[in-house]
Amino acid sequence: MTAQALIPAVVLGIDTPIGLAIVRSLGRRGVPVYGLARSVAAPGLSSRYLSEGILRADDAAGTLEQLEKLAQKLGTACLFAISEGDIALLNRHRAQLSGYRLMFPDARRMETVLDKRQTYAAAAIAGVPVPRTVQPVIFAEAAAAAPALRFPVVLKWAEPNEAGILLRRAGLVLDKTRYCHDEKELLEYLRQFEPVGRYPMIQEYCAGYGLGQFFLMHEGRAHCVFQHRRLHEWPPEGGVSTLCESVSLDCHVALRERSLALLRELDWEGIAMVEYRYDPERDEAALMEINGRFWGSLPLACHAGADFPWLAYSLLGVGAAQPQPRYRAGLRCRFMIPETKRLARLLFQPGAVADRKLVFSRAGELFGYLRDFLRPSTRYYLFTWSDPAPFLRDLWHVVRRTG
């Protein structure tokens, strides 16, 4: 693509490794990148590939005004958003963003993946396996279903954003995931939601590790495909990926075809991550969720050669489709601060791990943590030799907060 064909990009949310990965992906190819950050601690503000960094306004109206002024300054530009909250905000105000080519799904499509009931309904049509799930409407339904469940179970909210608002109003805390190990523990936990009249989904536990399959979709076709497995998470029982490894496209071929069928069933456009729990002993997978946005482990895909931000910019932003890239399998990527927190919990607080089926060797975990510093195939979410300043900025602010 010639320099004349490039248009600027604006990234709303350069506070995370995801936003930084987008800045690096586009900036290293000559795209002028403008980033909005919530605080001066944002690592993306120090990237050599950022044309201009801006501290975003404290409120939604101010942020929209900043974006409108940028559009007037830049002319036609691509707009990337990182968080689901920001995507929802921008989707509500699409009419004010007419100067941008929007690099995120519209509200209708986002709703289908944010509401797990819609996701699982589409999965049933596409033949994608899902864990056994109970969605109680009243407490009595949960009590009736509990004796037949296979424990442990994992509790998740079908619509976490909406549920979070309702729970906060009632003075309750939303747990993104909650493990319950027997019927008594389950019902005691659920009883607190009776005054609200809303309950999380109850899913039977799926053994194995996290397997992510990633796609760039346009008009029913996958223009880029990538997959990885999660090796470590924070918290250890499941959450943010802290160590992940790229997996060859020769693996999980049949499952990937079902993932594609699922995205087509949802009429998906743009990037998406289809996340499974995969049990290698039984060669069985169960769908966890779909992320309809750039995902936390995006730096791994970029390091491996599946450069999704650039490919999405090329395809959806300037209409220049790129071929499926050949990426490197077996590459690892580490998110060092939560990876270190994970190690500390396993060494000093192993009883705090909610998933009691997980078994760890303290010596093995410590050895693996140190060995990965020497592994030639290890990369990092924040640190790169070509752009070290974001890592140093992040480290400085971490030291200041803990000092």
Describe the structure.
This protein has about 400 residues and is α/β, with parallel strands linked by helices. It folds into 3 domains: about 100 residues, NAD(P)-binding Rossmann-like Domain (Rossmann fold, 3-Layer(aba) Sandwich); about 70 residues, Dna Ligase, domain 1; about 190 residues, D-amino Acid Aminotransferase, Chain A, domain 1 (2-Layer Sandwich). About 35% of the residues lie in helices and about 20% in strands. It contains 14 helices and 16 strands. Strands 14-13-10-11-12-15-16 form a 7-stranded mixed sheet, sandwiched between helices. Strands 3-2-1-4-5 form a 5-stranded parallel sheet, with helices on both faces. Strand 1, helix 1 and strand 2 form a beta-alpha-beta unit. The radius of gyration is 21 Å and the shape is globular.
List the helices and strands and how they pair.
Layout: E1 9-12, H1 17-27, E2 33-37, E3 52-55, H2 60-74, E4 77-81, H3 84-92, E5 100-102, H4 107-114, H5 116-126, E6 133-134, H6 139-145, E7 153-156, H7 160-169, E8 178-180, H8 183-190, E9 201-204, E10 209-218, E11 221-234, E12 240-246, H9 253-265, E13 270-279, E14 284-291, H10 298-304, H11 308-317, E15 332-334, H12 336-348, H13 362-374, E16 378-380, H14 389-402
Parallel strand pairs: 1-2, 1-4, 2-3, 4-5, 15-16
Antiparallel strand pairs: 6-9, 7-8, 7-9, 10-11, 10-13, 11-12, 12-15, 13-14
Helix pairs in contact: 1-11, 4-5, 5-9, 12-13
